[in-house]
């Protein structure tokens, strides 16, 4: 089912995908996040959960409390959503120890790009990245805005296990792993002591779709100290509010 500006796709009898575009684009993602906020803000009984992605919003609902036709009408009533660009954005400054044992692929990635490892670090840490979505594993942040000079193919031999908190590059994306050892075919360039997921926190997920992330290089001693602080429950990534 298509409506002006979006398409509805049933995912079983208790979920509906609202597709807002066919490309990965910041403007499309901003509309996804704005629609997500509008639907959650409606406080409608039976609307169980929303999951924003790159270009669509998955809506889980209880059809006994919120029939599909009523959900479709609710979506239409909140379209187009308010401009998500208004107000302020959350930006996280995330410490990263690049290279060495924490970035096993940094040197090879740099050589393939015709750059020094130091240049890769400077490029990677020199801009803001948009959190397009959280997925794959609890707290894994898919980030857009990677410098084209750092685009790199995924590994032909994926690792069955990578270090918790890995910072990596896969294709034209970069990402931040949660504090879990995960399988991955992405190129490992660093590791953060920040815990993007902690079920013991009041809000388990540190990052949210629409946030910005700026990486800050640190040395190994700082990594070890911040890791200890993070294990004790401290949030070692710094949150800022910036104008949109």
From TrEMBL:
Domain of life according to the entry: Bacteria
Disordered, as annotated region: 151-182
Biased composition (Basic and acidic residues): 151-160
A Pfam match: CT_C_D
Domain Carboxyltransferase: 6-207
Annotated keywords: ATP-binding, Hydrolase, Nucleotide-binding, Protein kinase inhibitor
GO-annotated molecular function: protein kinase inhibitor activity
Name of the protein in its database record: KipI family sensor histidine kinase inhibitor
